[in-house]
Amino acid sequence: MSSDPAVRVTNVSKCFQTYQKPLHRLLQSFYGSGRKLYEEFWALRGIDIEIERGETFGIVGKNGSGKSTLLQIVAGTMAATTGEVVTSGRISAILELGAGFNPEFTGIENARLNASILGIERGEIDERLPEIVAFSELDDFVHRPVKTYSSGMYIRLAFSIAINVQPDILIIDEALAVGDMRFQRKCFRKLEDLKNAGVTILFVTHATDSVVTHCDRAMLLQDGQAVSSGQPKMVVTRYLESLFDIEQVQSKAPNSATAARASGVADRGSLNRDPKRDGCVTRATYNTAEYRWGSRDAEIIDYLLVSNNNQELFQECRQGARVTLLLAVYFHRDMENIIYGLTVKTLDGTAVYGTNSELKKVDVSDGKKGELAIVRFQLELDLIAADYFLSVGVVHRDANASLNVLDRRYDLIHVKVTDDQDAFGFAALNVNLEEVKDVSSTPTT
Question: ∠346-373-294 over CA atoms, to 5°?
Fold first, then answer.
């Protein structure tokens, strides 16, 4: 076996030309280099990476940092402006959702098409189709056009194809964030199998806990440049320090004089009801570095986080405080089987607690086009003093039992829990500790 790395990226940069008007793009073709009608945007600058065979390499960074651009260049779907990329072996990539699929073709037809593009012979494709269908769990849907698929079904098919074409290098761009948790766990188990079989895995994700758990090394991109690389935990820590800079969050949040106040927890008037306006960004606890995605068939257009006296929280609360979180969700079309969820995470992305209306067996009304739903979560922040982030989401379960993300807002809310630093960890278990002076009075066995 060759000792050369599976992926070598040398001094790669990517520049995009942006035009103020479409006409300028046409005129530029006539002017050539004599006159410049565009502005340059450098998405990547001087990236160097070597990824060994069988290594799992994670890339993190804020939106717009150049992560997806880098993956496309490595996958060969985009050319670098300068620099060189050398790969060894067959590459299988899951990039943008649905990329590489013909919407008019069925799932089976798209599986054949994708496999043939990778150079797999027809007979070999036929042998692998049963495994692709079985892993995707799409059943009869594989015989339907993919334009009828939900986002979760898209990724089931794409992942199933990607792992069953025997890749030497597997590239994944945020794909595993789509779909239900059970299928995500199934995917990560398969990734471990591929890694043990010597497959090189390169993936981008906002789920920092996945980077720490599954990657051998990681890299942080910031404004198109690699600012940190090495051990995943070290890279993730630096990423989160930049993402959740507490002073930055507080300086950008509205102050108590200008922030919208909660004048009654049950009062809908205190929540934004205009779907054209995002009321979340006006809240004192809003995290400017949130990560948001989904179809937006339903949107979380506002929230209120209030204390037990109905006053809106401003960054800080005491350990054990009971708080109420209200979400305003606007539906752009009729939706059934709606699920509302909440997750509390630490600064390093570790989930402290999570639940949803399905797990709680709460009877949730169907979403109606043009109507607003108000959802209430009540929770006690029995947490060790630290900074925490609340993520919220609305999804729906389709006829195939797949979860389709309508609107997920990761790390939307930033809360600092304060108390005497007499413990460490996550949960405040309120332990009493004392030395027993009268040893004779203690029970024995």
Answer: 55
Segment 408-421, tens digit of pLDDT: 998 899 998 988 77
Beta bridge partners of 277: none
Topology given in CATH for the domain delimited by 246-418 = Coagulation Factor XIII; Chain A, domain 1 (2.70.50)
Residue 445, both tokens: 């066995």
DSSP symbols for 373-394: EEEEEEEE--B-SEEEEEEEEE
Domain positions in the chain are: 7-243, 246-418
Q: Which of 23, 53, 24 is nearest to 197 (CA)?
A: 53
- Model confidence at 266: pLDDT above 60: no
Element (H, E) at 10: strand 7-18
Query: Quick one: DSSP state of residue 365?
Result: P
In this predicted structure, what is the pLDDT of residue 22?
Answer: 77
CATH topology for 7-243 is Rossmann fold (3.40.50)
Amino acid letter for position 114: N
pTM for the full model? 0.63
Which residue type is seen at 190? K
pLDDT digits 0-9 by tens, 150-180:
777 888 888 888 888 888 999 988 766 655 6
Burial of 433 (0-12, 13-18, 19+ CB in 10 A): exposed
